[in-house]
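Minutes, methods subgroup
Present: GH (chair), OT, SY

1. OT presented the first of two proteins processed in the latest run. Sequence and structure tokens recorded below as shown on screen.
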Amino acid sequence: MTLRLAILASTNATDSQAIIDAISEGRLNAEIACFVVNRECGAIERAKRHNIEVILIPSKGKEREEYDRLVDKELKKRGVDLILAIGYMRYFSPWFVNEWRNRIMNIHPSLLPAFAGGMDKNVHKAVLDHGCKVSGCTLHFVDEGEDTGPIIMQRCVPIDEDETVDSLKEKVQRAEQEILLKAIDLYAQGKIKVEGRKVKLLI
């Protein structure tokens, strides 16, 4: 059975390209049912280039749960199995988290719990300003907190002496794409089990 994915995005959703490519090349037994975006962004063009449905639901002026219920309706209509939050600049309502418990994966550009709560280049800048020697990324299931859900996978990347925010972002994104593909594949095979705060990978 093919896993049906939904990608939620507010930015370019750069990491989603690796998923699109892996599916088209037959390396991943999944299909992207739709992109859901809350504003005009680069993810729309990316989806259109690959003939993937885009659902634009503007979030401005809507309460969090009100918005999430609109998203939920569209996802269920399309038989989505797993949600991927990639460059999605919104936090989910407790109602939505409960409705999709352990079926929302979020990719975060740091080694959580360090540098939680930030987004995109702000995280990389904070890492560099702190003088860290390594950084990386974390894929986790979403819970009611900010980047606090059960950790599925992490990947480290080294930080060079002359590292910049942009060069670190590029390194971390490559790592993000690797663990996203691995985790989606494991999930499709039923090889990810959540026990409290711990995630067991049956590999």
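2. SY then presented the second protein from the same run.
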Amino acid sequence: MTAQIAPTAADLMSEELSTDLSAAALALARRFHSGATLWVLSPEWEPHAHHVAVEFVHPVIMGKRALPAFALTGADPVSEARLATRPGDVILAVAGAEDAGIREVVRRAPAWGAETIWIGFGHRPEPGAANHVLWVDSADPMVPATGRFVLMYHLLWELTHVCFEHPGLLVASTDCTDEVCITCSDEGRLGEVVLAPTEAFAPAIVRTATGEEDVDVTVIGHVSPGDLVLVHAGAALVLLEEVAR
């Protein structure tokens, strides 16, 4: 009989993943502190979406605060997340990199003003696909059922509450020291067209991280609801490639 060797902490949580997890927890704590709601999606593994939401809404440790979190389980994750999300919220996805619906959700989230956390395994999403990528570097198809994901979002919950115990961490610095502040500038903001112009030279209504805006689309011409554009100084300068809406 071959002896079973219990996995070590390093087997379950690499140094890179630990760093990513800490950064995600801090960002999530700051968003909650500012009044965010957490929206959770897992189209292929719906129980994970419910489990994550329950972790934050019903804390298992006495004295920990209940935080607003909801599972989104409809058939169209993009439409559902678009309707639910408000500026300042967080979208957490538990899905593989090949999930087309989740790819579109995290792609559009900046236009909705939402921060994104993506938990998954196997081959990784492209760099920058989400604000925080928490990934199990294993191709084993049983990973979603082995407890690795559960461990990850349990730790995310615990570390988020650790951040709450240090109020000084909850407010990010907004001081600008550069001559041109990239954070405060109006350069290349992502927007999603809500309503196309109703007549020539009229503006389109475009949703951005700060809300709905009237945006001049003369430079790019025809737009349709759901199109993604880059907005600068009140004008749409680039129409991003068409994708499933």
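Chair's summary of item 2: The chain has a mean pLDDT of 88.
Next meeting: continue with the remaining queue.
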